Every structure is written in structure tokens, then in C-alpha cells.
């Protein structure tokens, strides 16, 4: 006697195996939504729009950018996680929403490392410590001295709670024994606007978000956060080389899709993305913004996010930072 449940399960598996290649072959046959968990105008948004245009050209369909910086990017993550796993909704994944927020927010509705399948790690870029052009502070030594003499008085903006720009300062405060006041925004763009206007005292932000302001001399770069200097601003020292021993941080950007997206679709999206970041226009733009093209495969991307999750969990625990 045939077990009806076994038969139906077997039929389902057979149908999935049969339809997966067909889905991949026709994908994409309509525009793809790229959800960016920050407001327009910041580094993540700049990278997202550059890549969206290039990937859209490779796939023959428009990749439409949708910004949502509410609740540190958590709303964007929830929207993306609840979307159909068909390759037509992609989340721009980076440090805050993917590996920091699960340890930062008590009532998080989505566990990003479980709710998404990684597609590709696209690029990484340094962060840079900047002050307004009118600030009297011209070196990191002056900055640290001023911060120590004025505990709790220096304010800094960030792209949001849990963002790379937030955690970079938390890490600096831990290593250098500083006390500073955090002002979260819904993206680096709004935070930088207030920094330039003198509403906040400093910011550690992604190089792509602030390179134009550095060039335009509306802000002054004091140091970069990576282990080595960036080719984009070779005269700007690293925090580690000027005395903040053991400090290293950076920003990374990738694509993830809702869990269960067909592997063939993921592979097609990844291939188009790798092809896109190897075009001269994208590589040149990356170089101009201090970013390095990567194109790292899903398994290695997943491993990196697990390591980052453990690292920032420890930083947050030490800092005793938690959000409702």
C-alpha cells in the first residue's frame, strides 16, 4: 500500500527539482527590489545604488533601491525576511542589521543570520574619524586629550544604533577609555549634515559616505580605522599607528536574500554581482571611495558574519549597551 504522505512529499521534491532550473532560467523577468536599511545619502546607500545599476545591467532588469532606516535597519530586515523567497527581494547586508542588532535590541523580531541566505560579500571599506572643518582639533592626540578632559560632553552622530559608525566609536571608547555622547540618525547622510553644521563634535563614518566632504574641506579627516592606510587618502594615518593600540574596524557590504530562495537563483544573482563589481566603472568608483571589490562566495560570507557577530557581541557586552 502506498503511503499518501510519503508520495506527496516525494512528488513535492520532484517538482522542486524540476522547477528550480526553469525558475533560474527565467529569472529575472521583472524588477528586483534592493532594500537598504539606512536613509539615502550615506555610504551604504552610495554602494547600493552603484551596485544596483551595474547588477541590473547584467541581469537585464532594473534593480530598484528602497531605503528604510527605521529602528536601526530592523524594519528593513523584517520586510526583506518576510518577502517571498524568489530572488526579487534582496537586502543590502552590512554590519549593523546583520551581526550587531541581534545583540543590541532585546525585542528583535528577526534573527538575520537565520532568516536570510547569503549571496555575496561585495566590498569592504575603511571608516574615518572626522571633525567639522571649523573644529580646533587637528590630530587624534588632541581629540583624545580633549575627550578625556571633557567626559560625556563630546557628541557624535552615527548612521543609527548598531551601525558601523556607532560601534566604531564604542570600540574606540573602550580602548582609549573615553566617555562620549551618541546621537543616532537614520543614516550617515543626515548625521553628516549635522556634523558639517557643527551640531555634533565628531563622527566615525564610512569612507564612501564622507569622501566628498573631505575633498570639499567641510570636514577634517583625523584617522582611518583599518589596519593599513587607505590609498584614497594616503596622508591620513590609522588609529593604531598613532597610539590607539589594537584598534581595527571597517565597513562591509553584501547581498542576502530571504531564506529558502532557490540555489539556482542565488547563484545567478551572485554571478551577475561578481561580474558587475569587476567592471571598470564599478572598480574605479570603489577605488575613488576607498572600497575594495571582493565577490566572496556565500559560504565564506556566512563564516565571516558569524565571526563578526561573536566579536561585536563581546564589544556590546563590555560596553553594557542594549536597546529596547
Task: Annotate the secondary structure layout.
Layout: H1 4-26, E1 32-36, H2 43-59, E2 63-67, H3 74-81, E3 89-94, H4 95-104, H5 112-115, E4 116-125, E5 127-132, H6 140-149, E6 155-158, H7 164-176, E7 181-184, H8 188-196, E8 203-206, H9 207-215, E9 219-224, E10 251-258, H10 263-277, H11 280-288, E11 292-296, H12 298-319
Helix pairs in contact: 1-10, 2-9, 2-10, 4-12, 7-12
List the keywords.
six-stranded mixed β-sheet, D-Maltodextrin-Binding Protein, domain 2, 2 domains, 11 strands, disordered N terminus, three-stranded antiparallel β-sheet, alpha/beta, 324 residues, 12 helices, 19% strand
What does the model show?
The chain contains twelve helices and eleven strands. The protein is 46% helix and 19% strand. Helix 1 runs parallel beside helix 10, helix 2 (43-59) crosses helix 9 and helix 4 (95-104) packs across helix 12 (298-319). It has two domains: 23-124 and 251-319, D-Maltodextrin-Binding Protein, domain 2 (3-Layer(aba) Sandwich), CATH 3.40.190.150; 127-224, D-Maltodextrin-Binding Protein, domain 2 (3-Layer(aba) Sandwich), CATH 3.40.190. By secondary structure, the chain is α/β, with parallel strands linked by helices. Helix 2 (43-59) links the parallel strand 1 and strand 2 (63-67). The termini are far apart. It is globular and about 65 Å long. Residues 1-9 have low confidence and may be disordered.
Amino acid at each position: 500500500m502506498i503511503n499518501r504522505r510519503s508520495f506527496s512529499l516525494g512528488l513535492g521534491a520532484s517538482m522542486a527539482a524540476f522547477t528550480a532550473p526553469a525558475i533560474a532560467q527565467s529569472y529575472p523577468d521583472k524588477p528586483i527590489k534592493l532594500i537598504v536599511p539606512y536613509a539615502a545619502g550615506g555610504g551604504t546607500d552610495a554602494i547600493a545604488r552603484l551596485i544596483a545599476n551595474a547588477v541590473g545591467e547584467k541581469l537585464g532588469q532594473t534593480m530598484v533601491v528602497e531605503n528604510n532606516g527605521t529602528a536601526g535597519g530592523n524594519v528593513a530586515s523584517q520586510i526583506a525576511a518576510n518577502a517571498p523567497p524568489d530572488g526579487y527581494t534582496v537586502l543590502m547586508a552590512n554590519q549593523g542589521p546583520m551581526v550587531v542588532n541581534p545583540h543590541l535590541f532585546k525585542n528583535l523580531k528577526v534573527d538575520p543570520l537565520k532568516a536570510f541566505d547569503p549571496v555575496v560579500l561585495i566590498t569592504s571599506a575603511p571608516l574615518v574619524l572626522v571633525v567639522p572643518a571649523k573644529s580646533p582639533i587637528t590630530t587624534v592626540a588632541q581629540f583624545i586629550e580633549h575627550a578625556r578632559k571633557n567626559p560625556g560632553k563630546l557628541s557624535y552622530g552615527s548612521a543609527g544604533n548598531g551601525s558601523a559608525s556607532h560601534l566604531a566609536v564604542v570600540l574606540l571608547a573602550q580602548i582609549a577609555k573615553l566617555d562620549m555622547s551618541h546621537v543616532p540618525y537614520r543614516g550617515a547622510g543626515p548625521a553628516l549634515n549635522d556634523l558639517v553644521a557643527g551640531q555634533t563634535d565628531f563622527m566615525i563614518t564610512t569612507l564612501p559616505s564622507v569622501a566628498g566632504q573631505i575633498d570639499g574641506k567641510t570636514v577634517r579627516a583625523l584617522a582611518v580605522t583599518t589596519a593599513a592606510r587607505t590609498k584614497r587618502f594616503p596622508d591620513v594615518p590609522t588609529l593604531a599607528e598613532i597610539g590607539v593600540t589594537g584598534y581595527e574596524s571597517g565597513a562591509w557590504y553584501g547581498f542576502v536574500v530571504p531564506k529558502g530562495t532557490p540555489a539556482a537563483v542565488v547563484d545567478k544573482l551572485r554571478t551577475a554581482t561578481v561580474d558587475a563589481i569587476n567592471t571598470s566603472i564599478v572598480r574605479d568608483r570603489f577605488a575613488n571611495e576607498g572600497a575594495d571589490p571582493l565577490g566572496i562566495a556565500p559560504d565564506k560570507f556566512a563564516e565571516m558574519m558569524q565571526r563578526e557577530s561573536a566579536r561585536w557581541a563581546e564589544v556590546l557586552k563590555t560596553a553594557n549597551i542594549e536597546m529596547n
